[in-house]
Design goal:
The protein is α/β, with parallel strands linked by helices. It has two domains: 1-210; 215-418, Thrombin, subunit H (Beta Barrel). It has helices spanning 152-167, 190-199, 215-229, 312-315, 366-369, 412-418; strands at residues 2-6, 26-30, 49-52, 60-61, 83-85, 175-179, 201-204, 250-253, 256-259, 270-272, 278-286, 292-296, 306-307, 333-337, 343-351, 357-361, 383-388, 391-397, 404-406. The chain has a seven-stranded mixed β-sheet. It has a five-stranded antiparallel β-sheet with strand order 8-9-12-11-10, with no helix packed on it. Strand 17 (383-388) and strand 18 (391-397) form a beta hairpin. Helix 1 (152-167) packs across helix 2 (190-199). The model has no long low-confidence stretch (mean pLDDT 93).
Length: 426
């Protein structure tokens, strides 16, 4: 059921405490001549799609419009282009999980006090693009999001947004008690956060996100960086599992080679490994995603590459994302092999369980960057590997020129099934 409420020139407290019928799926607030919407739905149990009919008035106040609508989980549709007051607009929207990108046209807003105060379940997505240039007093952001929990990914974006506006000189200053509740920022955002503070904003949050590299992560980093520092890269890394033909597959058991599905080899095809040893493909088994495993007619003598285990999130906690929680310069390096048989280095960005993807990023370390050659379009299939001691550990086979693919740790059970238990984890 759709309910339309026709209003006059003042909608302040017009629907305060209104108990919306349970059958209502859409609420239209039609009052294009209303300049004041202060606490219009204060304390209402509304939880449906809400649309506020746009107004042509040059100044409109939406202060407290959805204040204390504790059950509201739908993203309202509101034209913010003429809004001058958004104070307490979403205050205590405790079920709020929707994006606020649609409210980002805030170039005229002068007051945002307590705008998201008490939005305890708000993810924080969308504030990365809000415009704060028209805030008109030092208290215009006081208690902005107290008691609110932002995901670090989104809070990092908010800090980046504030930094860019401050650097451009469009951010009003000073600004008192800008509270971001329980949000924590990534270590690489500390400098930009401090820039905003030095600019004149009193930032309040839960501080820097702590991180600690696991023993495995430290080993993967050292296996490459130690070689780079001693000018012995790739040195004694065992590259033999890499296939030099048929789109650069990689051996993961004596009889199985990992490929991207859209370039899996055909039965009867001969492939050649890094050291020149050859083998004949017997069959290929495609997975649910862009991944496939080819079986060899006969086992080879080459020591296979390892893969990541299914419990990778427990042993590589800073790999959880997106985005990666690794501070700049501390991501584990990966080596990759393209169709021209070049060796390159990129950094491991993040992995996630579903979809089972992983990404590579350009390194920020000068030692690694000297080896970054870029990924040529059409290099799909080039394996990306971490290094454990002298052994390759397959992270993923490249499936696009942007550097993303199916992460072996996320499909570990399938790999075990298709190789009859022959694949080994790091």
């Amino acid at each position: 059921m759709k309910i339309t409420v026709n209003g006059e020139s003042d909608m302040a407290r017009a629907l305060e405490g209104w108990s919306v019928p349970g059958s209502c799926e859409e609420l239209i607030l039609d009052a294009p001549d209303a300049r004041r919407w202060t606490n219009c739905l204060l304390g209402s149990d509304v939880n449906c799609r809400i649309e506020v009919v746009p107004t042509a008035l040059d100044e409109v106040s939406y202060a407290g419009l959805f204040s204390q609508c504790r059950l509201l989980g739908w993203q309202p549709i509101v034209d913010m282009s003429n809004c001058v007051n958004a104070a307490a607009m979403f205050k205590q929207n405790e079920a709020m999980r929707y994006s606020v990108y649609g409210f980002s046209n805030t170039r005229k807003v002068r007051d945002m006090r307590q705008c998201f105060w008490g939005c305890t379940n708000f993810s924080g997505n969308g504030l990365q693009s809000w415009d704060f240039s028209s805030l008109h007093t030092a208290d215009s952001m006081r208690n902005f999001a107290g008691r609110t929990k932002f995901h670090t990914r989104y809070y990092d974006g908010i800090i980046q947004n504030l930094y860019e506006q401050a650097k451009a000189g469009t951010l009003p200053t000073p600004m008192n008690a800008v509270d971001f509740g329980d949000a924590q920022y990534s270590p690489d955002k500390a400098t930009k956060r401090q820039f905003v503070i030095d600019y004149g904003w009193e930032i309040m949050d839960a501080g820097e996100l702590p991180y600690e590299l696991s023993e495995l992560e430290q080993t993967l980093i050292a296996s490459v960086d130690d070689r780079l520092e001693s000018l012995a890269f790739p040195g004694d890394i065992d590259l033999r599992p890499v296939v030099r033909t048929a789109r650069n597959g990689i051996l993961i058991s004596p009889r199985h080679v990992l490929y991207v599905k859209h370039y899996q080899p055909r039965p009867g095809q001969t492939i050649s490994f890094w050291n020149g040893e050859t083998a004949v493909i017997e069959k290929s088994v495609p997975g649910d995603w862009d991944i496939a495993v080819a079986s060899l007619r006969d086992p080879v003598s080459i020591r296979p590459a390892l893969v990541f285990p299914s419990n990778w999130q427990e042993i590589m906690p800073t790999m959880a994302g997106p985005p990666s929680q690794y501070p700049a310069g501390t991501r584990p390096p990966m080596v990759w092999f393209n169709q021209r048989n070049e060796i390159g280095i990129a950094d491991l960005s993040y992995a996630k369980s579903y979809p089972p993807t992983c990404q590579a990023t350009i390194s920020t370390d000068p030692l690694r960057d000297d080896w970054f050659r870029g990924i040529a379009v059409g290099d799909s299939g080039s394996p990306f590997c971490c290094v454990y001691g002298d052994r390759l550990v397959v992270a993923f086979s490249l499936v696009s020129s942007s550097g993303s693919g199916v992460f072996t740790g996320s499909v570990r059970e399938w790999l075990n099934e298709v190789t009859q238990g022959l694949v080994q984890s790091v």
